[in-house]
Amino acid sequence: MADVQRWPGLVLAVFTLIGLAFPVLFGAFVQGYNRPPPRKNLSVPADDPGSASPIQVHTSVVGEDRMRVAWITDIPSPATVVYGTFPGCSYTYGIIYTYGDIHDVVIGPLKPNMQYYYRCGSSHSDPEFSFKTPPAAFPITFAVLGDIGQTEWTSSTLQHIAKTNHDMLLLPGDLSYADLCQSKWDSFGRLVQPLASQRPWMVTQGNHEVKMIPIFHPHAFTAYNARWHMPYEESGSDSNLYYSFNVAGVRVIMLGSYTDFDPSSAQYQWGRTPWIIVLIHAPWHNSNKAHQGESESVGMKEAMEDLLYQARVDVVYAGHVHAYERFVSFFLHFAYYHWRWWQP
């Protein structure tokens, strides 16, 4: 637990796809990095405990013209979202899905690259939020953030991301570091709400989401699946732990390092588009001294690496080791610089 708490909030990249043949270069040389010292853990308290006011609001995409809005209330209340393109929303989309005090509503159809204003719940006194839908085509900007946790480093990282004009955040696992402490999930939801309520957050699970208690609670991923419902149904997956979605002509595949990944598993059921981005938690290639030889890395690499090559995957992002490392094949470097040399 100690090594986990030291290094949350690793920004993997903020990058823009602009539709060129080789639009992004992910580094040609290995560079050294000295880790800064740890900072204190954070715990974000509730503003109005015991009320029906929406908290921990976050958004995610569902298909190409819908958004999922999820939030939590301390007491039961209607799962309703009022939304529109101007402040003071007037259009209501009714109750879709309720899980205890966790509310999950899909709204749409929505226009691409459009600012929408929305209110969670049925009370006009509830706060109004806003989000921007992703664009329908290039350019699109992704922020990629792994192993985020809840420390002062997390807060600093989120502030940096907030300054970028990104369209979507991708997170390859290890969200709250709550482990078995459910109140830390609540604190995490409050911590990320300013960003997650404004741009879609697309996440997959890490080892800190697995948590279960033998005999007493033998089911894994209970809190993660309830609080972070991703569009797995729409992608033909049978599990919230792996799914795919299309955005602006990019196929994004969120793989599950901590569920079945052998050739007969459902993770093999996705197709191809011109750009394919894959996110996993446990890296398949890793020169860091930590997390070597783990079955989630070695076994999944042996089972699926050839599949990704055959699908011509463009970019793979992983988390887990709490260190920044990047590499590309010699062919990609050669092709990129060859392409650059011929540009006017």
Automatic annotation (TrEMBL):
Gene3D superfamilies: 3.60.21.10, Purple acid phosphatase-like, N-terminal. Its EC number is 3.1.3.2. The keyword Hydrolase applies. Keywords: Glycoprotein, Hydrolase, Signal, Zinc. Its cofactor is Fe cation. Coiled coil: none annotated. Residues 54-133 form the Purple acid phosphatase N-terminal domain. It comes from the Eukaryota. It catalyses: a phosphate monoester + H2O = an alcohol + phosphate. GO terms for molecular function: acid phosphatase activity; metal ion binding. The keyword Disulfide bond does not apply. Residues 141-324 form the Calcineurin-like phosphoesterase domain. Belongs to the metallophosphoesterase superfamily. Purple acid phosphatase family. This is Purple acid phosphatase. It comes from Pyrus ussuriensis x Pyrus communis. The lineage of its organism: Eukaryota, Viridiplantae, Streptophyta, Embryophyta, Tracheophyta.
